[in-house]
TrEMBL record:
Job description of the protein: Molecular chaperone; assists the folding of proteins upon ATP hydrolysis. Known to play a role, in vitro, in the folding of actin and tubulin.
Protein name listed in UniProt: T-complex protein 1 subunit beta
Family matches, as Pfam families: Cpn60_TCP1 (PF00118)
UniProt superkingdom: Eukaryota
UniProt keyword list: ATP-binding, Chaperone, Cytoplasm, Nucleotide-binding
PANTHER family: CHAPERONIN
Family: Belongs to the TCP-1 chaperonin family.
Cross-referenced InterPro entries: Chap_CCT_beta, Chaperone_TCP-1, Chaperonin_TCP-1_CS, Cpn60/GroEL/TCP-1, GroEL-like_apical_dom_sf, GROEL-like_equatorial_sf, TCP-1-like_intermed_sf, TCP-1_chaperonin
GO cellular component terms, A-Z: chaperonin-containing T-complex
Location (main, coarse): cytoplasm
Signal peptide limits: none
Length: 527
């Protein structure tokens, strides 16, 4: 009996059929989980953490849902990673990518059941994916040259992205915000310079875009409330030295007068430091650490606005936006780059006071202030807006655009079907399966809207046999509608990423024929 004991006691292995079953089932379960969030009529999920405070997240973003799950099944983990990567790469399509991979696996499972080798299926899927991508490439529209049209494309893409999220009711408003913010970036995909501030209160419609920079801080006491032509020094330095900074240090003195001397010395040191800082010729000093009242007083006397404890994100962004650098030593003022802006003032949003920097050097920066009923609404609004911003910033670079609403899937499916009919051998079965999997996305969009998907998909298929057809599923009217008229667009880059990454993930899961689980480490008794 000693032969089959290669592994340690508690390690388990599953071979062949069982292993494949386990991966298929796990992956499909994950796909079914996020399936219902797809499309304009998709529902949201509430995720409750088991940690302290039992935080609740309400979301419909595939990546957010899957990130929060603790999963044991290895194949399901592949899908979770897939949606994470999609989120980092293009920002949107996180649900579609998982759903498509799940459907591909569902089709592959049927093929494996009729004794087709996984490698054959994989090579078929490979051909099909290539064919589908080319089908899309033939149909893309590129309006980069015509700025008016391009802007309306961007607006449509933003509205399409937002329509499946919580912001769908005010999508015109938010699409405009997102497009304005991204247009300011002038083609960089660095979303750092778009700052999103969430302030509970008001309604989602009260959200607005501000072209300056807003720091979530109050202005200190006795300091100027308004500065024009500000020169800003951004620093990360300790401004609280009126005690000895060495932990556990003892200072022995022979009289109280000496204590006073030490204190005066420290005060002088501080005063010197402040003098150095003022010597930069600035009128606004932003520090990351706290500023004690003594230096603060000195700054106020010099008429300098001192802001303390600006969180690190805020500081880095502020330095980026005003064109300054973060300084920590002040000995040679000529080498420090100061930030500049036209006006610093205090504004009120809801109950809170914030500091507003307007007329900043880097014209790309802007701040989006989100208002909403509660923190959950705001968090979800931020996620949705972030998706829209990502997609738009990618589209500004790669300006190819497709129609949405299940149209691209139908186009791909039609081409892939045609390829299957031309391909001899068992591969053709896999290619056909791929086209069925593509049809699943419009099917699910229709199902989520409570429509008769079988009826609608067959109508769509018939429509798509015509040349230059622009039909897709119009969930609002519950029928097949013209996507070009409805202005439902998607970015080509998102679709391409969905197609390629889900095919690759499927391929990876299909290649599995054995799952080995390690023995858990035992905890020795610490007695």
């Amino acid at each position: 009996m000693a032969i089959d004991r290669i592994f340690k006691d508690e390690a388990s292995e599953e071979k062949g059929e069982r292993a494949r079953m386990a991966s298929f089932v796990g992956a499909m379960a994950i796909a079914d989980l996020v399936k219902t969030t797809l499309g304009p009529k998709g529902m949201d999920k509430i995720l409750q953490s088991t940690g302290r405070g039992r935080e609740v997240t309400v979301t419909n973003d595939g990546a957010t849902i899957l990130k929060s799950l603790h999963i044991d099944n290895p194949a399901a983990k592949v899908l979770v990673d897939l949606s994470k990567v999609q989120d980092d790469e293009v920002g949107d399509g996180t649900t579609s990518v998982v759903v498509l991979a799940g459907e591909l696996l569902r089709e592959a499972e049927k093929l494996v059941a009729v004794k087709i080798h996984p490698m054959t299926i994989i090579s078929g899927f490979r051909m099909a994916a290539e064919c589908a991508r080319n089908a899309l490439l033939e149909k893309v529209v590129d309006n980069k040259a015509d700025s008016e049209k391009f802007r309306s494309d961007l607006l449509n893409i933003a509205m399409t992205t937002l329509s499946s999220k919580i912001l769908s009711q005010d999508k015109e408003h938010f699409a405009k915000l997102a497009v304005d913010a991204v247009m300011r970036l002038k083609g960089s995909t660095n979303l750092e310079s778009i700052q999103i501030i969430k302030k509970p209160g008001g309604s989602l419609m009260d959200s607005f875009l501000d072209e300056g920079f807003i720091l979530d801080k109050k202005i200190g006491i006795g300091q100027p409330k308004r500065i024009e032509n500000a020169k800003i020094l951004v620093a990360n330095t300790a401004m609280d030295t009126d005690k000895v900074k060495i932990y556990g240090a003892r200072v022995r003195v022979d009289s109280m007068a000496r204590v006073a001397q030490i204190e005066t010395a420290e005060k002088e040191k501080m005063r010197e430091k402040v003098q150095k800082i003022i010597g930069h010729g600035i009128n606004c000093f932003v520090n990351r650490q706290l500023i004690y009242n003594f230096p603060e007083e000195l700054f106020a006397d010099a008429g300098i606005l001192a802001i303390e404890h600006a969180d690190f994100d805020g500081i880095e962004r502020l330095a980026l936006v005003t064109g300054g650098e973060i300084a920590s030593t002040f000995d040679n003022p000529e080498s420090v780059k100061l930030g500049q802006c036209d006006l610093i003032e205090e504004i009120m949003i809801g109950e809170d006071k914030l500091i507003h920097f307007s007329g900043v050097a880097m014209g790309q920066a802007c701040t989006i202030v989100l208002r909403g009923a509660s923190h959950h609404v705001l968090d979800e609004a931020e996620r949705s807006l972030h998706d829209a911003l990502c997609v738009l910033s990618q589209t500004v670079n790669d300006s190819r655009v497709l129609l949405g609403g299940g149209w691209p899937e139908m186009v791909m499916s039609k081409e892939v079907d045609a390829l299957a009919k031309k391909t001899p051998g068992k591969k053709s079965l896999a290619i056909e399966a791929f086209s069925r999997a593509l049809l699943a996305i419009p099917t699910i969009i229709a199902d989520n809207a409570g429509l008769d998907s079988a009826e609608l998909i067959s109508q769509l298929r018939a429509e798509h046999q015509k040349e230059g057809c622009t039909a897709g599923i119009d969930v609002i009217s519950g029928s097949v509608g013209d996507m070009a008229e409805r202005g439902i667009c998607e970015a080509f880059k998102v679709k391409q990423a969905v197609l390629l990454s889900s095919t690759e993930a499927t391929e990876m899961i299909l290649r599995v024929d054995e799952i080995i689980t390690c023995a858990p480490r035992r905890r020795e008794d610490r007695m």
